[in-house]
Design brief:
It contains eight helices and no strands. It is mainly alpha-helical and 160 residues long.
Length: 160
């Protein structure tokens, strides 16, 4: 088995262990069950490229109780059509086989275009931070908000 087949087999086994049906995953993703079944058979010919395929894999991983970030990262590494960083992947493959890469990305991706690429260490907090931070902390304690929500909102506040 190649690494792609091992990845898909591991996802399918985890789905069966979690007792989640293909139909339930398809309903969660709002796609046809045939597309999920095709993915489990290592056929991505009908799948979208880029952002949507990564979102589908993330939702699939969440539905079968796997870590979504690790699963998407592995998907991007094994299936280049799902990765937005194709150029570096293909250049790595070319380096392995000692052949010059002729791949040229059709889109330019400037450095620092993502919010997470920016340096926000010296960012000044917003004027209303002294009101919103305590109220958010109180709200999360009262409602039992998930920690990942708090991490996401913290990263948004840091980027603002």
């Amino acid at each position: 088995m190649n690494p792609q087949e091992l990845f898909v087999t591991r996802l399918r086994r985890q789905r069966l262990r979690a007792r989640v049906s293909v139909e339930l995953i398809a309903e969660t993703l709002r796609i046809k069950p045939e597309l999920v079944a095709a993915f489990e058979n290592n056929d991505l010919s009908e799948w979208p490229r880029g952002l949507y395929s990564r979102a589908w894999v993330r939702a699939y991983a969440t539905a079968v109780d796997l870590d979504p970030a690790d699963t998407v990262e592995e998907f991007c590494r094994l299936f280049p059509q799902g990765d937005r960083r194709q150029a570096s992947t293909l250049q790595d493959f070319a380096a392995i086989v000692a052949s010059p890469s002729e791949y040229r990305d059709e889109f330019k991706h400037p450095e620092g275009r993502r919010q997470t690429d920016r340096d926000v260490t010296g960012a000044k907090p917003a004027w209303h931070a002294f009101l919103t931070h305590p109220s958010r902390a109180l709200w999360s304690r009262l409602t039992g908000a998930a920690p990942e929500f708090e991490e996401r909102s913290a990263s948004r506040r840091a980027g603002a």
